[in-house]
Amino acid sequence: MGEDKGEGEEGNFLPSGWGAQNSGPLMIISFNQPAFIPWGGFFARLLRSGRMVLLDESLLARGFTFVNRNRLKGPEGEVWITVPLKRKGRGRQKIKDLEIYEKARWASKFLSTLGHYYRKSLYFEAVFRDIEAVVNEADDSFMTMALGLLPLLKRHLGIENEMVLQSSLGISGKGTPLLVSIAEKLRADEVILPHGSKKSLECAQFERAGIKLRFLRYSPPQYPQFWGDFLPNLSALDLLLCLGPSGREVIKKGTFSLTARTACDIGKG
Questions:
Q1: Which of 104, 179, 188, 204 shows a CA-CA span of 20 to 30 A to 73?
Q2: How do 77-82 and 162-165 pair as beta strands?
Q3: Residue 4: inside a domain, yes or no?
Q4: What range defines the domain where residue 213 resides?
């Protein structure tokens, strides 16, 4: 993503502008897989947490995934933007190892699409200039590009909360045990998770570790968009190009949370 990896082993780095420490009295963390231009729900969890852990050691899902795709908007409605990945002969890959297929060709098409649909935005020039630099300077590594675009979106939305890579923590695993281990490593008091994840979690493991759970539901209010009637749940890049830094307030207004006990009880019903 055009960032400097700095010194250290591959995977054990934080790009420039990313935090390694949280000095607040209460440690609140959240989790997400690294993703290409993610939707507002990603940033809603980030805003509620002192630190978000990006699970770059996770295996890419076999079927549909939002890791390498999301939606923008054009005159005909949703426009899917997918980053093509090298898959042949590679089996299941960790997200941190993904490579972009025909990266230069894809980058040219992506940038052209942005210009075609959003050039009339008041915020287009500044945002596009930064995106163009990240996309063109990145190598074939998907993570290089993703880890360039995420801080870019953060900065333009005025979000300062920190992100850290799972691979920098030296912790592996899967499911609830992995999340609990990371939370304990970071001495988290509270973990924020997406509302839809409660059915796949073992809430009792967090309780035994003395870690509070909070499940966040994101349902953004309508905001002015290009190209006709409002479409929900697009990439946060659409929100940024429509409203600029004010997009952060839309994210905050669309964020609702449940306490752990309430959310886990609902999941059992």
A1: 104
A2: unpaired
A3: no
A4: 28-268
Q: Residue 21 corresponds to which tokens in the numbers above?
A: 């420490």
2, two tokens: 């055009």
Distance CA 86, CA 102 (A): 9
The CA distance from 103 to 136, in Å, is 9
Domain count, the chain: 1
